[in-house]
Amino acid sequence: MKAMQLYQSPEGVSLHLGRVAEPTPGKAEVLIQVHAAGVTPTELDWYPTTHSKAGAKRENAIPGHEFSGTIVAFGEDVTSFTLGQSVYGMNDWFAEGATAEFCLTIPTSIAPKPATLTHAEAATIPIGALTAWQGLFDHAKLQPKQRVLIHGGAGAVGIFAVQLAHNHGAYVIATASTPTLDLVKQLGADEVIDYKTSRFQDLVHEIDVVFDTVGGETRDLSWPILKPEGRMITIAADAETSTDPRAKESFFIVEPSQTQLIEIAKLLDAGSLKTFVSAAVPLDDAAAAYAKTISQKLGYGKVVITLAD
């Protein structure tokens, strides 16, 4: 099968299209014919992308850990899915990704694809929506009527965080830049702050939850605006190595969740949650798509790699 693979050299990482053996599902695995895979450029530098959980290096790893596709085979222990079923999901970060014609996954990492969405649209959802869901509800324990500040409201995670917090009945404040202010407002933010022209720390106070997707100075300036019992959550990688114990404690990494994907699909099919595709490119051009996503600001929405129709 064709697959986009990650190569490492002293000069850095690069992506190349190659051919690898089609994987065979084990007893508890599912084989997916990939129709679309989401592009998360930062994963190219993450340790789990190129290593096993035991620490062994995985050569020529396949990136793209969120996907949408069709089940073409599964092991004898899999009983909750059927052949030909359309599903979407997120693989564990230590597993191979989905920028390939086929990928292996496990049942708890996938759920039925939202019926109202195309495969390309569905592939934009798992990582961003699961991150927003887990951050707001599992880690921050957001409650209705609480005040939440979301940094990066038009980003891949922020778009979902704004909508989920709004749907939950919270008072939503988000930071964004001029081109996306109206979008973030339309998605449910009660207040939108242009971070390029205004200092959010001068405009908001008494915040119950800060959802930080930016890190650095933005996170540092957010601590004083929290209520005494307020909670900070962050996905910014610099928090993991920060000397500030508060930053380390607030950091989390998204995990696959079938249960949450099912709930997210319900919201999408009901029209209560929206997603955006900024560009769809074929597998042959995946390397260029990653490079473009890294080097340019593409507005809002996610780039997806498309494969089967």
TrEMBL record:
The keyword Zinc-finger does not apply. It is an enzyme of class 1 (oxidoreductase). The keyword Phosphoprotein does not apply. InterPro entries: ADH-like_N (IPR013154), ADH_Zn_CS (IPR002328), ER (IPR020843), GroES-like_sf (IPR011032), NAD(P)-bd_dom_sf (IPR036291), YIM1/Zinc_Alcohol_DH_Fams (IPR050700). Signal peptide: none annotated. Keywords: Oxidoreductase. GO terms for molecular function: oxidoreductase activity, acting on the CH-OH group of donors, NAD or NADP as acceptor; zinc ion binding. It comes from the Bacteria. This is NADP-dependent oxidoreductase. Residues 12-305 form the Enoyl reductase (ER) domain. Its EC number is 1.-.-.-.
